[in-house]
Amino acid sequence: MKGIAYCSSPVGELQIESENEEITMLGFLWDPKVSEVRTPVIDQCISELSEYFSGRRKFFSFPIGLRGSEFQVKVWSELLNIPFGKTISYQELAIRIGDIKSIRAVGLANGQNPVAIAVPCHRVIGKSGDLVGYGGGLERKVWLLEHEGAMQKQLSIF
Q1: Is 45 a catalytic residue?
Q2: Residue 89 in contact with residue 126, Cβ under 8 Å?
Q3: 3-class SS string, the chain
Q4: What are the residues facing 23 on neighbouring strands?
Q5: CB count in 10 Å sphere of residue 62
Q6: Phi-psi label, residue 85: left if phi above 0, alpha if psi -120 to 50, beta otherwise
Q7: What is the per-residue pLDDT across 129-152, written as a single tens digit (0 to 9) for each?
Q8: Residue from 14, 41, 119, 121 carrying the catalytic annotation
Q9: What is the spatial distance between Cα 142 and Cα 2, in angstroms, rounded to a whole number?
Q10: Does the model's pTM come out above 0.85?
Q11: What is the pLDDT of residue 153?
Q12: Separation between Cα atoms, residue 116 and residue 125, nearest integer Å
């Protein structure tokens, strides 16, 4: 059974999709909403996201169905090994999957991650520590990393 639901979060409205009792898409809402079809795994995902955003959860236990090329799934699976509150570089991610020469392809796969937040592509940064690229926008990446304690909160003078 396929499901779809929406969830408000501190980083914006999220769209969640499931198929065969696995979360197959968790992303930022860009398109108009369609009617919800709630499933148990979507309800679990929404509950765990609420706990994550309130600081009571550091990892997710709902089933995730990663669908993509063999290379993409390899990259996305490795993202799951980056601990809460930590970051790695795209180069380190390429090394971890066993192909140092694939840094650009790793970056592309990272940007195509269909299950944002739970498959923590936001924890990958530039080699020099720069915050580069995030499908949801850099302001969301900053928020997520600050929330996880991976970077100091920036003071605004405005």
Answers
A1: no
A2: yes
A3: CEEEEEECCCCCCEEEEEECCEEEEEEECCCCCCCCECCHHHHHHHHHHHHHHCCCCCCCCCCECCCCCHHHHHHHHHHCCCCCCCCEEHHHHHHHCCCHHHHHHHHHHHHCCCECCCCCHHHEECCCCCCCCCCCCHHHHHHHHHHCCCCCCCCCCC
A4: 18, 64
A5: 22
A6: left
A7: 888 888 888 999 999 999 999 986
A8: 121
A9: 32
A10: yes
A11: 60
A12: 15
122 token code pair: 């936001």
List the one residue out of 146, 130, 150 whose CA is nearest residue 90. Answer: 130
Number of neighbours of residue 103 by Cβ within 10 angstroms: 17
What confidence tens digit (pLDDT) does each residue in 56-109 have?
Answer: 999 999 999 999 999 999 999 999 999 999 999 999 999 999 999 999 999 999
Residue showing tokens 């991610």? 93
Nearest-angstrom CA–CA distance, 50 and 10? 10
Q: How far apart are CA 98 and CA 32, in angstroms?
A: 40
